[in-house]
Design brief:
Elements: H1 2-75, H2 82-144, H3 148-185, H4 187-208, H5 211-238, H6 241-245, H7 248-263, E1 266-272, H8 280-301, E2 305-312, E3 316-323, H9 330-335, H10 345-356, E4 360-365, E5 371-378
Parallel strand pairs: 1-2
Antiparallel strand pairs: 2-3, 3-5, 4-5
Length: 386
């Protein structure tokens, strides 16, 4: 029943799109004809403009000569009569009038030329958009005109694969939450209590001047504090609490800063677009991908600088991570990607994570050329949370 209903909807959609396609095609043909007519008119206007410019230049030269002639006959009354002066004056006036008319014609032709160029650009854009629409509709019609069962299976498979990927990620993160909570409520609290008791003992012994015992307790307190800090770091690595409270970007900033402090590798992070809160599973997946990329660079790249660029786009998140390390042969890595061994197994794990999210991962590298990893993670409208 559901398949039949979907079949009817698809058939109706095909009919509407076929009709719309021919209407768009007619619009496209009309625009092409208009474009051809405008180009012909523009060519004619260009020729007339060129002729008008030449005529104006010629008249300007003649007008200058007539002005010089008028000045000459006006000054020499002995050689030239009043008739000569009148003839020179009329010639200069006539040329001035012709020059004014031709300049006006030139300006009009230039304005017409500019207007035609503008109209041609607009029509070209219309033709381009119409051709793109026809092409896109043909692609959609090819899909819709295929086997309905195949379309249904593809949709179901894509949905199941994405759900499976998110479930796997969420299951991993639920386990990390559980371990983090147990450590936080158990070992971390116990160590904090030990620190408190040693401080009390330290004050008591200080009053009785047991210096040797006091020194021992001071050392013990520092050791326990170090262990407490290590446990807290383990908790953060298992599940950064800030990821749920503050979101992806603040958590990534803290991770990058801690990475730089510990590894002594210079880092930078840049953001573009409007930051968007994503579902917990997606934010965790993106965070783990960034974490894995930095870890690979630390282990294998021997880099002195790593940059992270995160771009929030309307329908996807783009993550670009680049280092200036030793690089590697990407083709050789791809040829061995089915072997679960080697120095770059982490990159294979990243590719699998990105595939589960319906995304794309590109690796650009070469010997002594560093490595650039670009990940594109799609965001569906229902997953967008400002």
């Amino acid at each position: 029943m559901q398949v039949d209903a979907i079949d009817r909807v698809i058939k109706n959609a095909i009919e509407v799109m076929e009709s719309s396609k021919y209407e768009i095609y007619e619009i496209c043909e009309s625009a092409r004809n208009e474009l051809e007519s405008l180009n012909k008119e523009l060519q004619s206007v260009l020729e007339q403009t060129s002729q008008a410019i030449d005529q104006v230049d010629k008249l300007e030269a003649q007008y200058r000569q007539s002005r010089m002639r008028l000045t000459e006959v006006s000054r020499d009354f002995q050689r030239y009569t009043e008739v000569d002066i009148r003839i020179a004056y009329e010639a200069a006036t006539h040329l001035q009038l012709q020059l004014s008319i031709n300049r006006e014609k030139e300006n009009h032709l230039k304005a017409r030329r500019d207007d035609l160029n503008k109209r041609i650009r607009n029509v070209e854009r219309q033709v381009e958009r119409a051709e793109m629409l026809v092409s896109q509709m043909n692609v959609v019609l090819e899909y819709l005109s295929g086997d309905l069962n195949q379309v249904t299976r593809m949709l179901e498979s894509a949905k199941n694969r994405q759900m499976l990927g998110l479930k796997i990620i969420m299951a991993q993160e639920d386990e990390r939450k559980r371990i983090a909570r147990e450590i936080h409520d158990g070992l971390a609290q116990s160590m904090a209590h030990v620190v408190l008791r040693t401080e009390i003992a330290e004050r008591m012994l200080g009053q009785q001047l047991y210096e040797s015992v006091k020194d021992e307790l001071v050392d013990l307190k520092e050791q326990v504090r170090g262990g407490l800090e290590e446990v807290r770091q383990i908790i953060f690595n298992l599940r950064p609490m800030a990821l749920d409270d503050l979101g992806l970007i603040p958590t990534v900033r803290k991770y990058v800063q801690d990475f730089e402090d510990k590894s002594k590798i210079r880092t930078s992070i840049k953001l573009a677009g409007k930051e968007t809160r994503l579902p917990s599973g997606m934010e965790v997946a993106i965070y783990r991908l960034i974490q894995e990329a930095f870890s690979n660079a630390l282990k294998h790249a021997h880099a002195s600088y790593i940059s992270l660029h995160i771009t929030f786009q309307k329908q996807m998140v783009k993550i670009a991570i680049q280092d200036n390390g030793v690089g590697f042969d990407v083709k050789r890595l791809e040829s061995k990607q089915l072997q679960h061994s080697g120095n770059h197994y982490g990159l294979m794990g990243m590719r699998e994570r990105v595939d589960l999210l319906e995304g794309r991962l590109d690796i650009v590298s070469g010997k002594d050329e560093g490595t650039k990893i670009v990940m594109l993670i799609p965001i569906s409208p229902e997953h967008r949370e400002e």
